[in-house]
Design brief:
Elements lengths: L6 E8 L2 H7 L6 E2 L2 H14 L4 E6 L5 H16 L4 E6 L8 H8 L3 E5 L10 H17 L5 E7 H12 L6 E5 L18 E3 L4 E3 L10 E4 L5 H5 L2 H10 L18
Parallel strand pairs: 1-3, 1-8, 3-4, 4-5, 5-6, 6-7
Antiparallel strand pairs: 1-2, 8-9, 9-10
Helix pairs in contact: 3-4
Length: 256
């Protein structure tokens, strides 16, 4: 197995338990320290600047937290990372964020809108997607691209609302749970490598309560943690030794 992960997702901010249940954000709210962010980005840029690097931001924002996110994205791109994707529920998207997103150089915004049509009103997000596309056209730029991920039950609502603002946005549909039947090795254990806002490298992005912590980036490198305790977890998945899996994998229904 590779000594360095093929994809990495780093949690910049987690907003609430509701976000954890929907998107795989940490159950406890908090935000990653800028020093840890720089340390992570620097190691990734040195190891493999071409890997897919996700910055996860779930929850609302104001001028201060919104600008902080802009600086983090700008720093990642300035460090030489070629594919930086902001994965979010859109809660950060205050009015000023449209300009910041373009100026940061982020390559894609991945909006998780699986909740649309149930309990939250995402209309402001759809409006800002439209404004972003208009601003990009006016500046003659193509990035950031926008991709919306949703669940089957909300797909029709998402497509209907997007049609009113912009037709170029890609929509992906995902299942909320594993397919059932005979268990197979879970791809989430292999990619992306997940680091939460505390700087802990955990089992995967669905390990919302940090039940499996391979280590802390303040004490080890990503490469060291990935090829150490986390490799043992992946080996058990790969070999089909599911009865030996620790929490959260032991009781997880997100495997696929």
């Amino acid at each position: 197995m590779s000594a360095f992960p093929p994809q990495i997702i780093v949690e910049c901010r987690a907003g609430s338990l509701a976000a954890a249940n929907r998107f795989g954000a940490s159950a406890a709210a908090g935000q990653l320290e800028m020093g840890w962010w720089k340390r992570i980005v620097t190691e990734v840029a040195e190891q493999d600047p071409f890997l897919t690097f996700y910055a996860a931001y779930y929850g609302s924002a104001n001028m201060i937290t919104g600008y902080r996110l802009y600086y983090m994205l700008e720093y990642a791109k300035a460090s030489g990372l070629k594919q930086v994707i902001l994965r979010t529920d859109g809660g950060f998207w205050i009015e000023e964020a449209t300009r910041w997103l373009i100026e940061s150089g982020v390559d894609q915004i991945h909006l998780d809108l699986g909740y649309v049509g149930r309990d939250l009103d995402a209309q402001p997000i759809f409006e800002r997607i439209g404004r972003l596309e208009t601003a990009k056209h006016g500046l003659g730029v193509t990035k950031p691209e926008v991709e919306v991920e949703t669940t089957g039950e909300a797909e029709s609502v998402v497509r209907e609302r997007l049609a009113a603002h912009d037709r170029s946005v890609r929509v992906r549909t995902r299942d909320v749970r594993g397919a059932g039947g005979e268990r197979v090795p879970c791809r989430h254990a292999f990619e992306p490598c997940a680091i939460n806002w505390r700087g802990e490298l955990v089992a995967c992005r669905f390990d919302t309560r940090s039940e499996f912590v391979a280590g802390w980036i303040g004490e080890a490198t990503i490469a060291g943690l990935w090829s150490g305790r986390h490799r043992d977890l992946r080996d058990r998945h790969h070999a089909g030794r599911f009865a030996e899996l620790p929490p959260p994998c032991a009781d997880c229904s997100y495997w696929e």
